[in-house]
């Protein structure tokens, strides 16, 4: 005898997927809980399709155990923001088709930024600022930009536009001229990293602008028949840069000050002072004093006064630059 029987398919009553966050540039795994219309956890093999923003990204046969479905999906190319995910469980001999949707948030990753230590820095000199940028797994980044700040002020170019440096192979590098009017002191250097895919990050280091050494270059040294000593000299930094602020100059003859802390501007010494120099050799010392930008410097030279009534142009001899204080 033949028996006739009917196999009843069951509806998938509940498919649950919780919304979740994924860091930009990463793939992820969807986990769903599945029960049938009788509340029984499904144990089966199912064909599953996953769509992100309406586009199919995965078609796989998945083994479901104890009502748990797990499927890997490609999310590394998704932009930051919210995206819709739909999981379609296809009909088979046991269950009718079912689908469920959820929201997935692609969030920015994290960055680590470090400023490389700098060599000795002087006002008016060029420095190379280097920031190294990696993600939270230590991998170098190749997108985003870095802006550098000194004491909270973003560095700008000659046109007054804020300077930003592109990150390439994890490095942002900027050659920058420290303004000549910066005083010698500690400054807070900040590197700020920003990107469309990585959370804003910054790092800070203390840098010190040193007092620049200066060079005094005599151009003329004349002692005339009326007993006047005339001195002309220029003062520049050791980098051959013009002096941009006021300096105090002291002139000594045989150790005695004849001019004490005279203010000069723009690095030009041009003075004339009555002074009695007996015949013979006299030692002349020119001292440019220390200030907020420059270290002290001095030069020593000698003149020889002949016993005659005619004007005497003293020749400099044995000129010596005395090491500046730092």
Write the layout of secondary structure elements.
Layout: E1 12-16, E2 20-23, E3 28-36, E4 44-52, E5 55-64, E6 68-73, E7 81-89, E8 98-107, E9 111-115, E10 121-122, E11 126-135, E12 145-150, E13 153-154, E14 165-166, E15 171-177, E16 186-194, E17 201-210, E18 214-223, E19 228-237, E20 247-253, E21 256-264, E22 268-274, E23 280-288, E24 297-305, E25 317-322
Parallel strand pairs: 2-8, 10-17
Antiparallel strand pairs: 1-3, 3-6, 4-5, 4-7, 7-8, 9-11, 11-15, 12-13, 12-14, 12-16, 16-17, 18-19, 19-22, 20-21, 20-23, 23-24, 24-25
Describe what is shown at a glance.
The chain has 326 residues and is mostly beta strands.
Task: List descriptors.
about 325 residues; mainly beta; six-stranded mixed β-sheet; five-stranded mixed β-sheet; about 0% helix; disordered C terminus
Structural summary, described in words:
Strands 10, 12, 13, 14, 16 and 17 form a six-stranded mixed beta sheet that branches. This protein has a five-stranded mixed beta sheet with strand order 2-8-7-4-5, with no helix packed on it. Strands 21-20-23-24-25 form a five-stranded antiparallel beta sheet, with no helix packed on it. The chain is mainly beta. A hairpin with a 6-residue loop joins β16 (186-194) and β17 (201-210). The protein is rod-shaped. It is built from no helices and 25 strands. Mean pLDDT is 84; it is low at 309-326.
Average pLDDT rating: 84
**What sequence of helices (H) and strands (E) makes up the elements?**
EEEEEEEEEEEEEEEEEEEEEEEEE
Model regions low in confidence, pLDDT < 50 over at least 5 residues: 309-326
Sheet-strand content, in percent, reads over 45%
Ends apart, CA distance between termini: 113 Å
Basic shape: rod-shaped
